[in-house]
Every structure is written in structure tokens, then in C-alpha cells.
Specification:
single chain; 268 residues; mainly alpha; 3 domains; two-stranded antiparallel sheet; 60% helix; structural constituent of ribosome; MRP-L47_sf
């Protein structure tokens, strides 16, 4: 009770003093005494309060094509500093939000979205930036601790026997006592129904690969017949699963037979 009697008059005096001070004066005083380093260290937004940052420049509205550059490659990003990468990430994030907004607006108005490949380039740039940052983190942790510093993971099967890469998470409750986690994550499978599903699933994957391999082979044969002088090295790089040289020899034999049969018929 004695403590409350001492605090009560002090609080009353403090409330009276604060009531006499204007809010704008307090805000102005805080701005004058604020440290320069604490005021918006990184900013990519102009000093305006409208929503036009989510839209493209007005001169690009209604255009069929918008001029743009290429995406950021890993080699370009590796020579940048960490602060530059930090700022570039927010620039790319704003660009992605703007493009998504414009794409949605064009769909609502049933208009053509100009240069949709910009979204792919921004996405590729952000993925490359994340990979470069991950490389630097791995190098730092391997130098300091001898480990990568990334979350551990392993390839495990699910309840249907399909294998996937699982990344570990930190939990407060240990694994042996975490009932909900053990019920949700079961890395085992069994039963005749599951084995039958796996057999049919693998058969489907094999058929898809076989059909894709046959389509690529037929396409290579068609190209070799139509363009006999095509660059076979480039063709082999374009279709790595096809033996281009073997098909080229077979195709040359067929062409020779056709030429000989044509010449013999003409001589008779």
C-alpha cells in the first residue's frame, strides 16, 4: 500500500505533463533526435503513398511488346556484394509483384499481357540469387565449422512406397515422444495393395519413358531424312537419349538402296 501511495501522485503528474504536450511536437522531437542509421537503411520505393508501384509504367499500357533485358545469371551475381544482393532481391520482388498484378489486370480486362517472358526471367533471376546466397552460406559454414550449415535431409519412402527427399525440422518435443509427428510421418510401407500399386506405378513410368524415347527417335529420323547435311553433334546435344550416329548410318543405307533401285529401274 505504501508503494501505491508513492507511485500514484507521480503517475498523475506524468499524465498531466503528457496531456499538455502536442503529439506532433513529440513526433518532431523524435525525428530530430533519431539516429541517421535507423532511418530506412534500404528502400526501393519512391516517397509517395499511392498504389501505382504495383502497376507498370503508363506508357507500356496497351503495348504488344515491352523492351526488357535478360535475367541475372549466377556469374553476374557472384561478383556482387551481400548488400547488393540484398537490395537486388527486393527490386526483383517488387518487379515480380508488379508483373503479377499486370497479368491479373490483363486477364480481368481480357487483354494481351505484353512480354509475359518477363515473369520467367524474374523467377530465374530470383532462383539464381538464392543459389548464390546458399553457396556463400555453405562456404562460410564449411570454413568455420566444417559442415554445410544447411538442414539435414535424406531420401525416404512414404506410405505408398514412393521415395522423396525429406528435410528435417527442429521440434521442441523429442522424436520418440512426439506423437503427432510420428502419426503424420511414417516412412515405411507394406501390404499387397501397396506392392501392386508400386508395380503399376513403375510400369506407367516405364511406358512414359519408352514413349518419349520413341518420339525423340522418330523425330531424329525425320530430321535426318529431311536434312541429310544437318550438324549431328548439335542434334546429339538436343537429343541426348538418341544414338544419332547409328540412326545416320541406317538412314544412309536406306538412301543408298533407294538410289540403287532408282538407277537400276532407269537403266532397264
Amino acid at each position: 500500500m505504501n508503494i501505491l501511495k508513492n507511485i500514484l501522485p507521480i503517475s498523475q503528474q506524468l499524465s498531466k505533463c503528457l496531456a499538455t504536450v502536442n503529439t506532433q511536437q513529440v513526433f518532431a522531437t523524435l525525428q530530430r533526435h533519431a539516429a541517421p542509421s535507423s532511418v530506412r537503411a534500404i528502400s526501393t520505393t519512391a516517397h509517395r503513398h499511392d498504389l501505382m508501384q504495383f502497376f507498370d509504367d503508363k506508357k507500356n499500357w496497351g503495348e504488344q511488346e515491352v523492351k526488357h533485358g535478360r535475367g541475372w545469371t549466377k556469374d553476374d551475381l557472384r561478383i556482387k556484394s551481400n548488400s547488393d544482393l540484398h537490395q537486388l532481391w527486393f527490386v526483383l520482388l517488387k518487379e515480380r509483384n508488379m508483373l503479377l498484378t499486370m497479368e491479373h489486370e490483363c486477364k480481368e480486362k481480357m487483354e494481351l499481357f505484353p512480354s509475359p517472358e518477363r515473369l520467367d526471367k524474374v523467377k530465374e533471376s530470383m532462383e539464381n540469387l538464392e543459389e548464390v546466397v546458399r553457396e556463400r552460406n555453405r562456404a562460410y559454414y564449411e570454413l568455420e565449422t566444417g559442415e554445410t550449415g544447411e538442414r539435414p535431409g535424406k531420401v525416404v519412402p512414404n506410405e505408398l512406397g514412393i521415395r522423396f527427399y525429406y528435410r528435417a525440422f527442429e521440434h521442441v518435443i523429442p522424436k520418440y515422444a512426439n506423437r503427432k509427428w510420428n502419426e503424420r510421418h511414417k516412412f515405411t510401407f507394406g501390404g499387397s495393395a501397396v506392392w501392386k500399386f508400386l508395380r503399376l506405378y513403375r510400369e506407367r513410368l516405364y511406358n512414359e519413358k519408352r514413349k518419349l524415347r520413341n518420339r525423340e527417335r522418330n523425330e531424329v529420323v525425320h530430321l535426318l531424312r529431311r536434312f541429310p547435311n544437318i550438324d549431328r553433334e548439335t542434334l546429339a546435344q538436343r537429343f541426348p537419349t538418341v544414338d544419332v550416329e547409328k540412326l545416320y548410318k541406317l538412314d544412309k543405307i536406306r538412301m543408298n538402296h533407294s538410289v540403287k533401285s532408282g538407277s537400276s529401274s532407269s537403266s532397264t
